[in-house]
TrEMBL record:
The keyword Signal applies. It comes from Cyclonatronum proteinivorum. Keywords: Signal, TPR repeat. Residues 657-684 form the ASPIC/UnbV domain. The keyword Ligase does not apply. SMART domains: TPR. It holds the Pfam family UnbV_ASPIC. It comes from the Bacteria. This is ASPIC and UnbV. TPR repeats lie at residues 58-91, 92-125.
Length: 1143
C-alpha cells in the first residue's frame, strides 16, 4: 500500500536552481517574446517544450491553447485549454482564457460559465468582470439585465475613477430606463473628465439635460457621440486598457508560472567594486577633446582627439579643426555621419571659426568637401558651438543640427546628392549647448530636446512633415547643465535625464495617461561642488557595470560621479577618486566593458579602463542597412532607431545613437531576443536560438503595398494580387505636394481555375497586412464566361490619366519573337510564359523603386491578328517608392521613377515615340495591355522599346489577338456574405530578389499588432454588406490584421467549351503609415468621392469631418472599434501594468 501511495503522489516542483528549471524559464519567456513577433511557429515550439518537460504547468498548456486559437485551430486550442484546466482547475487566468475560447467558438453560454468561475476565483480583476459583462450582453441583454447591472456595480467598486466604466454604466442605465443611475453615471463622468474639449463638455451637459427630462430615446445616439469625442483622449484610452485588452489581441498569454516556482525579477546586483584604471592613449598626451569614433563598419571604435588646431585620427591623419583649441572642448564639436550612404562614417566639425564636413574616401583618407555642399560661405564660416546627426525630415538619410554660438539652432537637410539645405525649424531655441533626438512620447517619431546656455530646456515635438511644436505642459527647467536619454526604469519610454547646475541628477518622464511630464529627482547633489555649466558638463546613460540596468555618469573637469542602478531603479554612487572630465564612453579594448575617455585635471589625454569585481556578461550589437543599392529607407547604421532585448525576465530598451549599441546582461549568458524598430518605423525581431549575430541587417520588406486578394479553388487559397492601388491617400511626391487620387474604382482579373465554387459558393478573402488603413466603399464580383483557348485581361496600369479598365478578351497569348536588354542579352526564354521567373534588366540605384535608365527591346514577330487587332501582354510587378523616398528624391538632383516610355522602330534604322508615359504595373502580379494595331511605321520591322527608371520585374511578355466581346458572358454575382473579422498576418515568402514578398495564406505568423497602427475608429467585426453594397462613401474601414470574407453564389457550371474567369470590382482608398505620408498616423481625415484634394488639418476631430457629418449613424452601428498603437509599443513588456507610462 505504501508503494502504491508513493507512486501516485503528485510530483514536486523542481529546485529553482536546477538546469531543467532554468531551461524551462528560458523557453517560457523566449516563447512569450517570440509570440509578439512574426515567429509564431518558434514561439509555439518553445512553449511546447515547457509543456512536455513539465506537464503539470498549466500556464504552458493554456498559452499553447491561445497560440492554436490565433492560428484558427480551435480543435487543438480546445484540447490544450482542457489540459490547462486539468493541471490547474481553479486558476482564474486559465478559466478566463477558457471563456475566451468558447466565446470565439460562438458558445456564449459556456463562455459565460467560465467567466463567472474566473471572476469568483479572482474577484479583484476588472478585466475578467468586463469580459463577463460583454458576454452577458452578447447572449441576451434583456434576460441578463439584472446580472449586467451587478457586474457593472462590481466594476465601479474596483475602478471607481474609470471613465470607461462609468460610460458603460450610463449606457446600460439608459437602456434599462434607470433614470437615477443614469444621472449618477453622467455626473460622475463630469467629475472625471480630463483632456476633454469644449464640445465634449457641452455634449455631456446636453445628455444630463435629457436624463433629467427622462428622454431616454434621445440619449441613445447622443451617448455614442459623446464616446466618439472622448475615446481618443489619453485618459479614456488608459481607462479602457484597465478593463479590456486591445481589440487586435486574440486572447492573452499567461506571463507567470502557475505550478513551477515563479522566478523573481531582479537585475543583477550593482557591482560596487567597479574601478577605473587610467592609461594614456598611444601617440598623444595633451588634448582639448577626446572622443570615441566608429568610422568603419568592419573595424572597432577607437579614440580620436583634438589638439593643436586639428582633429587627429592617427599619426598620418590630421584634419584642420575650424576653431580654437587652447581650451577644453565639448564633445558636441564633432559628429559622425555617413551622409553619402557608403557605409563609412564621415566627420562633421563645428567650432568658433565655422563648420566643416570631411568625407571619408575609399582609402580611409578624408577630404574637406564643405565648399561643395551648396551652403553659403557665411554659413560655413559662422561661429558654432556644436553639431549633431539626426534624421530630421524622416526621409531615411542623416541630416545635421547645427548650433551657432548665439542664436537659434537650425537643420542642415541632407539632399542625398552631396548637398545640404538649411531649414529653420526650431525658432524658440537660443544659444544651444546640447541636443538629444529621440521618441519621447511613444508615437514613433523622434523629438528634439535642446539644452541652452542659460540652463533651460526646450522641447520640440515632431509632427512629421518638417513640422514641430512646443508641447503644452513641458516642465520649465532653468537649472540644467547636461542632458542624456535613456529608459531608466525599463518601461519602454525614453526619459530625459539631466544634471542640474548644483550636481543633482533628475529625469523628465512622459506620462502618457495625461500627455504630460513629471520631474523626478534620481540623485541629490553631493556637497562642496562648484556650479556646473553646459559648456563643460557631460551626462551619460549607459550600463557601466553590465548588471542589466542603466546607470548614470555625470562628469565635469573637476569631478566625475558614477551612479549604479539596481532592480528597484535606485542609484548608488561609486566611491571614485577625482580623475577628470569624461567626454566619451565606449569599449576601448573590446572586452565588453565600457571604458571612459576624456581629459585629466591638467588637460592630459586619458582612457580610464573599466574593471569590475563581478563577471557580468554583455552584448554589443551593430545595426546596418541591408545594402547600398535598392533601399535607402533607413540610414546606414540605423541611427535614431530603437533596440529592445529580452533575456528571461530582463528587459532593456536603448536608443541607436552610434553604430554599436551595448547591453549589459548581468548573469544571463546571451540576449535571447532582440527587437529593432528601425528609424522608418519597420520592425524586426531576432533570436539567439535562431542565429542572432553581432550585426543585424535591416530586412527589406514593404511597409505598404495595398490590401491583398486571395481566392479559394477548393483545395488551396491562392494569392492573386493587390487592390485599390490607384487611390493612395496622402502619398507624398515632394516636400510640399501629395499625389492625387486618379480614380477610386479598380478592377482586377482572377484567372480561370483559381476560383472554384465550394458548396456552390465562391470564397474570396481580402486581407490587410501592411502598415496601412483601407477604406473599402464597394466590392462586387463579376463572372465572365468565355471560350476555352481565350483569356480575359484587364489593363492593370497605374498612369495619369487613368487607363480604360474595360475587360478584354484575347486569344491565348504566345511568346513574342524576342526580348533583349539594352546590352543585347537575350531574355526571351525567361519571359516566354508567366511562371514566376522574372527578368531585372537594370542596375539599381541606392533608392528603392528607382533604377538606372534602361530599356528592353521587344521583337514582336509575325502578327497574330485575327481581324480585331493585336495586343501586347506584359505581366510583372513593381517595387514602389514610398512617401519618404519620394521626399528624399525631391530634395535631390535625382529624378523620380519614370513610367514606361514606348518607342517603335521607324523603319529607317531609328526610333519614334509611341507613348511618352505608358505608366507602370499597379502593384504585384499585374498585366499591362498595349494595342499594337497600326503602331509600326514599317510592318517589316515590328520592334518596340520600353524605357523606364522604375523598378519593374517582368514575368512574361507575350502577344495575343483581340477576340470578339460577344464571346463573353458577364454576370454580377449576388453577395451572400461580406464579413469583417480579425485574422492576423500571413507568412511572407521571398525566394529571391527578383520576386516580391508573396503571402502564404496557409500559415499565420502572428496575430499581434505588427505595425504602429494608424489611430482612430475602424469598423467593428461582423457583417458589413450594407457598407459595401454601393459606392456611396459609406465604407468598411480596415486595419492591419483584418480580413474581409466575401462569398458569392455560383450561377452553375459554365457551358461546354466555356471557362470562367472573374473580375473583382473594388472601390476605395488606402493610406499608409509612412512618417512622411500626409496624416499617416491617424484614420482621419476620412476620404470621400469628389474631394479635390486630401485635405488634412492637424488635430482634426471626428465630429468635424464631412463624412462623419453625412453619416453619423455609421459611427454608432459600424465604426465603433477604436485602435491605438499601444500594443505595438509595449509588445515586449510582459506585465500589462507596465504597458502604460502612468502612475
Amino acid at each position: 500500500m505504501l508503494a502504491v501511495a508513493c507512486s501516485t503522489s503528485e510530483p514536486e516542483p523542481p529546485v529553482a536552481e536546477s538546469d531543467a528549471y532554468l531551461r524551462a524559464v528560458s523557453d517560457f519567456f523566449v516563447s512569450l517574446a517570440a509570440a509578439q513577433t512574426d515567429e509564431a511557429r518558434f514561439a509555439f515550439n518553445k512553449m511546447n517544450d515547457v509543456a512536455r518537460a513539465w506537464p503539470q504547468e498549466a500556464a504552458a498548456w493554456a498559452n499553447l491553447g491561445v497560440m492554436a486559437m490565433r492560428q484558427g485551430n480551435f480543435d487543438l486550442a480546445g484540447t490544450r485549454m482542457e489540459q490547462a484546466r486539468e493541471a490547474a482547475p481553479g486558476n482564474a487566468e486559465v478559466l478566463w482564457l477558457s471563456g475566451m475560447y468558447y466565446s470565439r467558438r460562438g458558445d456564449v453560454s459556456e463562455a459565460i460559465r467560465y467567466f463567472r468561475e474566473a471572476a469568483e476565483a479572482s474577484p479583484e480583476n476588472p478585466r475578467i468582470w468586463f469580459s463577463l459583462f460583454t458576454e452577458l450582453e452578447r447572449e441576451d441583454d434583456a434576460a441578463n439585465a439584472a446580472e449586467i447591472v451587478e457586474v457593472l456595480d462590481t466594476l465601479k467598486v474596483l475602478q471607481p475613477r474609470n471613465q470607461a466604466v462609468w460610460y458603460e454604466s450610463a449606457r446600460i442605465a439608459n437602456r434599462n430606463r434607470m433614470q437615477p443611475e443614469l444621472e449618477e453615471a453622467l455626473r460622475k463622468l463630469g467629475e472625471l473628465q480630463q483632456g476633454w474639449d469644449e464640445d465634449a463638455t457641452e455634449q455631456l451637459e446636453m445628455l444630463l439635460m435629457f436624463a433629467e427630462e427622462g428622454d431616454f430615446s434621445e440619449i441613445t445616439f447622443e451617448l455614442v457621440f459623446l464616446r466618439n469625442m472622448i475615446e481618443p483622449t489619453p485618459v479614456f484610452q488608459d481607462d479602457v486598457l484597465r478593463i479590456q485588452f486591445p481589440p487586435t489581441e486574440v486572447g492573452f498569454l499567461i506571463t507567470e508560472f502557475i505550478w513551477l516556482p515563479r522566478p523573481e525579477f531582479r537585475v543583477a546586483d550593482p557591482d560596487m567594486g567597479v574601478r577605473f584604471h587610467p592609461q594614456t592613449p598611444e601617440d598623444f598626451a595633451q588634448a582639448s577633446l577626446l572622443k570615441g569614433a566608429t568610422l568603419l563598419e568592419e573595424f572597432p571604435p577607437f579614440t580620436v582627439h583634438i589638439a593643436d588646431g586639428h582633429l587627429i585620427l592617427d599619426a598620418e591623419t590630421r584634419l584642420p579643426y575650424p576653431g580654437q583649441t587652447d581650451a577644453l572642448l565639448h564633445p558636441a564639436v564633432m559628429a559622425e555621419i555617413d551622409f553619402n550612404y557608403n557605409f563609412r562614417n564621415d566627420i562633421a566639425l563645428a567650432g568658433t571659426d565655422g563648420f566643416r564636413l570631411y568625407r571619408q574616401e575609399d582609402d580611409r583618407s578624408f577630404t574637406d568637401i564643405s565648399a561643395t555642399l551648396g551652403l553659403p560661405a557665411a554659413l560655413r564660416n559662422d561661429s558654432y558651438f556644436g553639431v549633431w546627426p539626426a534624421d530630421v525630415d524622416l526621409d531615411g538619410d542623416l541630416d545635421l543640427i547645427l548650433a551657432p554660438k548665439s542664436g537659434p539652432v537650425f537643420a542642415l537637410i541632407n539632399q542625398s546628392d552631396g548637398t545640404f539645405g538649411r531649414l529653420n525649424l526650431f525658432p524658440q531655441t537660443r544659444n544651444v549647448r546640447d541636443v538629444r533626438w529621440a521618441d519621447f512620447n511613444g508615437d514613433g517619431t523622434a523629438d528634439g530636446v535642446f539644452l541652452q546656455e542659460d540652463g533651460s530646456l526646450v522641447m520640440y515635438r515632431n509632427l512629421t512633415g518638417n513640422a514641430f511644436m512646443l508641447p503644452e505642459g513641458f516642465p520649465q527647467v532653468n537649472d540644467a547643465a547636461a542632458i542624456a536619454v535613456g529608459d531608466l526604469n525599463a518601461n519602454g519610454y525614453f526619459e530625459i535625464a539631466f544634471a542640474t547646475t548644483e550636481g543633482a541628477v533628475e529625469v523628465l518622464r512622459y506620462a502618457s495617461r495625461y500627455d504630460s511630464w513629471d520631474r523626478i529627482r534620481l540623485f541629490d547633489a553631493p556637497g562642496n561642488t562648484s556650479p556646473k555649466t553646459p559648456a563643460t558638463t557631460t551626462l551619460f546613460v549607459t550600463d557601466v557595470d553590465n548588471n542589466g540596468s542603466l546607470d548614470v555618469v555625470l562628469s565635469t573637469p573637476e569631478r566625475t560621479t558614477v551612479l549604479l542602478s539596481d532592480s528597484d531603479f535606485t542609484f548608488q554612487a561609486l566611491e571614485l577618486p577625482d580623475f577628470g572630465w569624461v567626454t566619451s564612453i565606449y569599449d576601448v579594448d573590446g572586452n565588453e566593458r565600457l571604458d571612459f575617455v576624456g581629459t585629466g585635471p591638467a588637460g592630459e589625454a586619458l582612457e580610464w579602463m573599466n574593471a569590475g569585481t563581478k563577471n557580468y556578461n554583455a552584448y554589443s550589437i551593430r545595426a546596418r542597412a541591408s545594402g547600398g543599392e535598392g533601399d535607402a529607407r533607413i540610414n546606414t547604421f540605423g541611427i535614431g532607431g530603437e533596440m529592445e532585448i529580452r533575456s528571461g525576465l530582463l528587459y532593456q530598451k536603448q536608443l541607436i545613437s552610434s553604430p554599436i549599441v551595448h547591453f549589459g546582461l548581468g548573469t544571463y549568458e546571451e540576449a535571447e531576443m532582440l527587437r529593432i524598430i528601425w528609424p522608418n518605423g519597420s520592425v524586426q525581431a531576432e533570436f539567439a536560438e535562431l542565429g542572432l549575430g553581432s550585426t543585424i541587417f535591416n530586412e527589406q520588406v514593404l511597409k505598404g503595398s495595398c490590401p491583398w486578394l486571395f481566392t479559394n479553388d477548393g483545395e488551396k487559397i491562392h494569392f492573386i494580387t493587390d487592390l485599390i492601388w490607384r487611390s493612395p491617400l496622402g502619398l507624398r511626391i515632394n516636400a510640399l505636394e501629395t499625389a492625387g487620387v486618379i480614380q477610386t474604382e479598380d478592377r482586377v482579373r482572377i484567372p480561370a481555375g483559381l476560383l472554384q465554387p465550394v458548396d456552390g459558393v465562391y470564397d474570396l478573402r481580402v486581407t490587410a497586412e501592411l502598415w496601412e488603413t483601407h477604406y473599402f466603399d464597394h466590392l462586387s464580383l463579376i463572372a465572365v464566361d468565355h471560350p476555352v483557348g481565350t483569356e480575359l485581361f484587364i489593363d492593370e496600369r497605374f498612369v495619369f490619366p487613368a487607363p480604360d479598365l474595360t475587360e478584354r478578351l484575347l486569344s491565348e497569348p504566345v511568346p513574342v519573337a524576342g526580348v533583349r536588354d539594352m546590352h543585347g542579352t537575350d531574355l526571351s526564354a525567361t519571359v516566354a510564359q508567366p511562371n514566376g521567373e522574372h527578368i531585372a534588366p537594370f542596375r539599381k540605384t541606392k533608392f528603392q523603386g528607382l533604377v538606372q535608365p534602361h530599356y528592353i527591346e521587344i521583337e514582336i514577330g509575325e502578327s497574330v491578328d485575327q481581324g480585331l487587332g493585336e495586343w501586347l501582354v506584359l505581366q510583372g510587378w513593381l517595387r514602389p517608392t514610398d512617401s519618404s523616398i519620394n521626399l528624399m528624391l525631391s530634395q535631390s538632383s535625382f529624378d523620380s521613377p519614370s513610367g514606361l516610355m514606348v518607342e517603335v522602330a521607324d523603319g529607317s534604322g531609328g526610333w519614334q515615340v509611341l507613348h511618352e508615359n505608358y505608366g507602370i504595373p499597379a502593384g504585384k502580379q499585374k498585366s499591362i495591355l498595349m494595342d499594337l494595331t497600326g503602331v509600326f511605321p514599317d510592318e517589316s520591322d515590328r520592334r518596340l522599346r520600353l524605357h523606364t527608371t522604375s523598378e519593374i520585374y517582368w514575368d512574361a511578355i507575350r502577344k495575343a489577338a483581340r477576340m470578339p466581346d460577344a464571346q463573353m458572358t458577364l454576370r454580377e454575382l449576388p453577395a451572400e456574405r461580406m464579413e469583417l473579422r480579425y485574422r492576423g498576418f500571413s507568412r511572407w515568402n521571398h525566394a529571391d530578389s527578383l520576386l516580391p514578398n508573396l503571402p502564404d495564406y496557409a500559415e499565420i505568423t502572428s496575430t499581434n499588432q505588427r505595425w504602429r497602427d494608424l489611430e482612430g475608429y475602424y469598423t467593428r467585426f461582423g457583417d458589413v454588406t450594407e457598407l459595401l453594397a454601393e459606392t456611396d462613401d459609406r465604407y468598411a474601414i480596415m486595419n492591419a490584421g483584418d480580413e474581409l470574407v466575401l462569398e458569392y453564389r455560383s450561377p452553375g457550371e459554365p457551358e461546354t467549351g466555356m471557362q470562367r474567369s472573374f473580375i473583382l470590382v473594388n472601390v476605395g482608398w488606402v493610406k499608409d503609415g509612412d512618417y512622411n505620408t500626409e496624416a499617416g498616423m491617424t484614420v482621419l481625415p476620412l476620404p470621400y468621392h469628389g474631394q479635390s484634394d486630401y485635405e488634412y488639418v492637424r488635430g482634426g476631430r471626428l465630429q468635424d469631418d464631412p463624412v462623419f457629418q453625412r453619416f453619423p449613424e455609421d459611427w454608432v452601428n459600424f465604426h465603433t472599434r477604436y485602435v491605438t498603437p499601444e500594443a505595438f509599443r509595449s509588445a515586449l513588456l510582459l506585465n500589462p501594468d507596465t504597458r502604460r507610462n502612468t502612475p
